Amino acid sequence: MNEMNHYNGMNNAHEGAYTVSGYDGVMPTPIKKQGRGLETATLVFGILALLICCCNGFFGLIGFVLGIVAIIKGKRSGMTITGLVFSILGILGAIVVVLFSMTEYGQELQDAFWEGFEEGYETSLGKSIDFGEKWLDEADEYVAKSVETHKGSNSISDKVAGQIVIDGENIQIPCKLSTILELYELGEYSKDNAKDELDSAESRTLFLAKNGEECGICINVKNYTGKKMSDIKDGKVGMISIENNPEKDVEVFGGLTLGMTASQVEEVIVDLTYNKSEMSGFVFYNIYANDNSPYSVSLMLSDGVVSNITLYYTN
User: Fold this and answer.
1) What residue spans define the domains of the chain?
2) Is 158 exposed, middle or buried (0-12, 13-18, 19+ CB in 10 A)?
3) What's the whole-model pTM score?
4) What is the C-alpha radius of gyration for the chain, rounded to an integer number of angstroms?
5) Does CATH place domain 145-168+249-315 in 3.10.620?
6) pLDDT (tens digit per residue) in 270-312
7) In whole angstroms, what is the distance from residue 97 CA to residue 55 CA?
8) Residue 257 CB: number of other CB atoms within 10 A?
9) Contact, 239 vs 220, CB < 8 A?
10) C-alpha to C-alpha distance for 194 and 181, rounded to whole angstroms
């Protein structure tokens, strides 16, 4: 009996030894490990503050504030303390740099730095200008070689030179914009430009339309009055340009029309002064009424035929 009681007592003792208070057969919820974002941020900003304290103490202030917040939240780790120390050193370094820059020696160092910077900038800028001028010289030389000058003996009177016939309508350049608007209307995108006033010698390029559709004609309106002009419709049209259009009949200088070939053009202008040049597959003729005339015509040929005619009045 005594042995049985001893055995039961031992069992009870063992059962008591393995009993865990509060355990009801369900596994306890694991404790979530807290992140170290504040500590890491404090250290990062502290390092930045120490590295670039010569610029300002901005990073140092951020690192200092983050470090204080981390300590208040109980995250007094080595990362926090290190970041906080670096931040304080960065702030002190920035203060020293500011005070030093206010001294005479500091001012001399700053002046020397900026002089060296400006000298290096001007040197590189000078090289780029030299390169640009060289490129322009080469371009001018190329154009000069590609331009063929023809000196004619005849001239065109200003009255004929300033006249352009479009679809049977005679327009004399220069004229007021209001005269052009008796035949055409302004394109949608040019209406706003025509509402503004023109300063002295200011000009605007406007696109024309017919029956609500742009018709491939653009003009340049200029203020010749020498003072501000409140109504752009009083401005003088000194340039008119017409794009090739199968439905459009255009004639200038007594016989030049859209759609002509180069040989046909040269037959008409054989006795006039002109320049001929070629570039990027296009052929250009610049034709002058005479040496003293303000009128000239520019023809552009693409695919072997005149695709654009532009009449200029340059006074």
Assistant:
1) 36-114, 145-168+249-315, 179-243
2) middle
3) 0.55
4) 43
5) no
6) 999 999 998 778 899 999 999 889 999 999 999 999 999 999 9
7) 8
8) 18
9) yes
10) 11
